[in-house]
Design brief:
The protein is an alpha/beta fold. The protein contains 14 helices and 14 strands. It folds into two domains: 19-48, no CATH class; 53-388, Inosine-uridine Nucleoside N-ribohydrolase, Chain A (Alpha-Beta Complex), CATH 3.90.245.
Length: 390
């Protein structure tokens, strides 16, 4: 079985490109010369850092989603849209303002963003399987928080609106099942081609080998559709931060952890809300929360904590992943993805604790998207990193 091959950094790719061009010039009328000509005329993919960001989340269950969202909202000016997956309730056509009806994850996301001071970020309620086992923040959402626009059409409209207000790449940070991403790939292929996806999920050696990793298992069909979009070129090769990397006590937060202690007793509304969420998660589910999603966010932000490699991934009927043998299908079995190999957990946790320390000033605010390809004449640039009507 072949293992992953280490990815090159962007700078290493540029160095290799220039070396190949120089070699081709020294060897005219050769295959290398032809390759050099192609490299000269080809453009390297634009870097995603600084591009507008979408977070796709099943917030309101495990508290790691909420911690990651607050870190992004406080420190990433480019966060423009939050959509939810594995939504509560069976039917987006009948949302309820409170309780377990459809769209409660989106209502919690809306409230959390508002108390962080990021009312500029749009929220849409996305895919639901009709039920969910993980939702523990019902009593933290005021009845006055209105339902967000919901359903597949609302998600597609929100993504299309963002894409229409800026040019270039859009960062997609997946912290949930791949349901919404699959819909974008199937129904908005021209926008899917602009996405640079960093997704939490998948596992090569899952701790429970009889089943697939959580985010894949909850919507195997969506995962299959996303892999098909990668295979046929509609979606650029995503980076998956695997459960193999994230399932470790080295990134666990519990009641006595310094991060939790920094939130406890603070007066800031967002800190009070996060602390309440953590307490409910400990009470109802587990005595700690692993920071799967914040680690994934850090990779999308271009921070150096997660080390990735390229590998071909095969998925079976129930969503389990493996690396196929090189002899399978002549070495072309599976789908080429970037997958996490390891992470610098202490450095990552130091960053996260700083980002979520109420004493740390928030860095997010008004952003000029001119460097990210904002379209002139479309309106006024908002803190969400997109242009809103003037």
């Amino acid at each position: 079985m072949n293992g992953p091959e280490d990815d090159l950094s962007a700078e290493q790719v540029r160095e290799h490109r220039e070396a190949m061009i120089a070699l081709g010039r020294r060897l005219p009328q050769t295959t290398l010369a032809d390759t050099a000509t192609q490299l000269q005329t080809a453009e390297l993919r634009a870097p995603a850092v600084g591009a507008p960001m979408v977070i796709d989340t099943d917030i309101g269950g495990d508290a790691d989603d909420a911690l990651a969202l607050v870190a992004a909202a406080r420190h990433s000016r480019e966060l423009a849209l939050v959509i939810t997956a594995d939504e509560t309730g069976p039917d987006h056509r009948a949302p309820h303002p409170a309780g377990r009806g459809y769209g409660q994850r989106a209502r919690f996301a809306r409230y959390l963003l508002d108390v962080v001071g990021r009312g500029d970020i749009a929220v849409a309620a996305g895919a639901t399987t009709g039920h969910t086992d993980y939702f523990c923040v019902e009593d933290l959402i005021p009845a006055t928080v209105a339902p967000a626009p919901g359903g597949r059409d609302a998600v597609l409209a929100a993504v299309a609106e963002l894409a229409g207000r800026c040019d270039g790449p859009i960062r997609w940070v997946g912290m949930a099942p791949l349901s919404n991403l699959a819909e974008v790939c199937d129904h908005l292929p021209e926008i899917a081609g602009r996405l640079q996806v960093t997704q939490m999920g998948g596992a090569i050696h899952y701790r429970r080998p009889e089943r697939a990793e959580h985010n894949i298992r909850l919507d195997v069909d969506a995962a299959r559709r996303v892999l098909a979009a990668v295979a046929d070129g509609r979606l650029a090769k995503p980076r998956f931060v695997l459960s193999d990397t994230t399932f470790t006590d080295q990134i666990a937060v519990h009641a006595t952890h310094p991060l939790h202690r920094r939130l406890a007793g603070r007066a800031e509304s967002w800190a009070v809300l996060l602390e309440g969420h953590l307490q409910r998660w400990y009470r109802d589910h587990h005595d700690s929360t692993l920071q799967h999603d914040a680690l994934t966010l850090s990779a999308a932000l271009g921070l150096p904590f997660v080390r990735s490699a390229t590998a071909r991934i095969a998925m079976d009927d129930i969503g389990r992943w493996s690396i196929p043998d090189a002899s399978d299908a002549g070495g072309a079995a599976g789908t080429g993805l970037r997958v996490s190999r390891s992470a610098d957990y202490p450095a990552f946790m130091a960053w996260l604790e700083h980002a979520l320390d109420p004493a740390t000033p928030a860095a997010a605010g008004t952003v000029d998207l001119s460097g990210a390809g904002a379209r002139a004449g479309a309106g006024v640039v908002s803190g969400a990193g997109v242009r809103r009507p003037a």
